[in-house]
Amino acid sequence: TESPTFAAVDLGASSGRVVLGRLTAGRLETAEVHRFANGPVPLPDGLHWDAVGLFREVLIGLREAGRPVSVGVDSWAVDYGLLDSSGSLLGEPFHYRDSRTDAVAESFVDSFGAPELFARNGLQFLPFNTIFQLAASKGAALEAAEVLLLIPDLIGYWLTGQVGAELTNASTTGLLDARTHEWSPELARAAGIDPSLLPPLRRPGDVVGELLPPVAEETGLTGTSVVAVGSHDTASAVVGVPARSPNFAYVCTGTWSLTGLELPAPVLTEQARRANFTNELGIDGTVRFLRNIMGLWLLQESLRTWGLTSHDLPGLLAEAARAEPLTAVVDAEDTRFLAPGDMPARIADACRETDQPVPRTRGALVRCVLESLALAHRRAIREAAALSGRDVDVVHLVGGGARNELLCQLTADALGIPVVAGPVEATATGNLLTQAKAAGHVADLTELRRIIATSHRLDHYTPRGSTGPWDEAEIRLPSRPTP
Ligand code: ADP
Ligand code: LRH
Question: Where is the Carbohydrate kinase FGGY N-terminal domain (predicted)?
Fold first, then answer.
């Protein structure tokens, strides 16, 4: 019989792609058929995504997809579009870096009670969680809205005409009950919305629907259905971690560094809340116990400030590799770095405030960014292990950052634990294999990960030297207030 193929639509905050996967004799061959840029668009009322433009790129990609069994869609979390009663999109979705939640998020938490909120939804405090975005929204769009669709579900709606909310991404909204895995009407009301705005939940593996006739015509696809995957990109990235033993931690590095552990159950303790950990849902009942670290956004925005592009990255990384180690580090979880803007200036401020030298060259600043990320990876992994009572003997670093050899090596050095880097396209890989599993070609997560480990070239980094200099650098970071 012919080997089945699947198509993954993976929308990252900095780029989107359509990737095909063919499963033959226990190996997955992948081919990227379309890639396109993505990013915030400043409009008079704030920062948005160009959702319609992204959908157009999805259609262009699917036109190159051949005859896949199914299509799965994933994207970044928390953001949403609103539809009116006739199914029209009510304005371009806001970007999670928009500042409208600044004044609202903390006061919402204060009035609800931080421990009460964490006990209910199990989420890390991030000012852009959907619950805070909704609390900050006023106006006509929300009043006219009949249904709220998270970004991958919006793309799924445009492909099939079916509405729903996929569970892994719903778990990032702050509106899902961490114990029952159902929408919480109480949290919806607290956010100021009618709970009926939230569509029925669907799970990875569920059929979303068949392609609408204009979509089938535009893409040339017939007989292809859309299947729900871990539609939160980080859920698919964790599926795409080629772990061979249970004692692994992961760092999903792209725009963000999502760093933590895969667990069978949430950790809802007061210590976990104070350490600002999140319990997001993975596939097959797993929990992603992790922290959001600012990630390569720090580097992307530095390049943008300098008028450089990703083509300049190899040269800059070579300079960073030659720069003096650990002269200055910043807290890569500080929300001061969240908004778009002059990143080198903000990093310099953070160095001054902690009495450290300001990096004088671009190479030194890039080194400061990568060392700060490595230190943040170390802190999150150590704390996740302590809070969950797990041992960690290997760290899997997946996503675009797996191409960054210096970042991989520094992460191994800081932790004193080996790092296995790759796949770069872990998210698309996890998306594809979740579809293959839904179609009955893969038994479970263990087999799925074995397929990834045998299909991809992985790079191994062994820790160099002692972790002493990292212990010393960690002391220079300001202590974080706990609410
Ligand atoms: P996202 O899904 O959040 O958009 P990706 O997983 O695509 O992010 O990762 C993008 C990041 O990958 C970039 O910000 C960049 O730092 C890194 N990257 C891409 N290409 C290279 C390269 N050739 N060398 C080092 N890093 C790279
Ligand atoms: C990574 C990601 C992350 C979220 C952020 C908004 O792309 O989905 O897991 O917290 O975007």
Answer: 68-240
Question: Can 459 be counted among the known catalytic residues?
Answer: no
Map residue 272 onto helix, strand or coil: helix
226-276, pLDDT tens digit by residue? 999 999 999 999 999 999 999 999 999 999 999 999 999 999 999 999 999
pTM score, two decimals? Answer: 0.98
With a threshold of 0.85, tell me whether the complex ipTM lies above it.
yes
Dist. CA 257–CA 239, nearest whole Å: 16
CA dist 43 and 45 (Å) reads 5
The residue with tokens 């997946």 is 398
Kindly report, residue by residue over 254-263, the tens digit of the pLDDT.
999 999 999 9
- Ligand 1 atom at shortest distance from the alpha carbon of 14: 4
Q: Residue 128: which residues within 8 A CB-CB, separation 6 or more?
A: 78, 96, 97, 98, 101, 105, 338
Q: Ligand 2 center to residue 406 CA distance, Å? A: 23
Atom of ligand 1 nearest to the CA of 16: 4
- Among 403, 408, 411, 425, residue to substitute to test ligand 1 (most atoms within 8 Å of Cβ): 403
Nearest CA to ligand 2 atom 11: 76
Q: Looking at 74, 98, 153, 233, which residue is catalytic?
A: 233
- End-to-end Cα distance, the chain: 59
The rounded Å distance from CA 76 to ligand 2 centre is 5
Nearest to 319 by CA among 359, 275, 287: 359
What count of other Cβ atoms lies within 10 Å of the Cβ of residue 367? 27
Residue 441 has pLDDT above 70, yes or no: yes
Distance CA 341, CA 339 (A): 6
> How many whole angstroms from 232 Cα to the centroid of ligand 2?
8
Whether 290 contacts 238, CB under 8 Å = no
Q: Is 277 a pocket residue for ligand 2 (Cβ < 6 Å)? A: no
**Non-local CB neighbours of 186 within 8 Å, separated by 6+ positions:** 120
Cα angle 407-408-413, degrees, rounded to a multiple of 5: 95
pLDDT(382) > 70 = yes
DSSP for 332-365, please give it: TT-GGGSSSS-HHHHHHHHHHHTT-PPP-SHHHH
Q: What is the pLDDT of residue 2?
A: 77
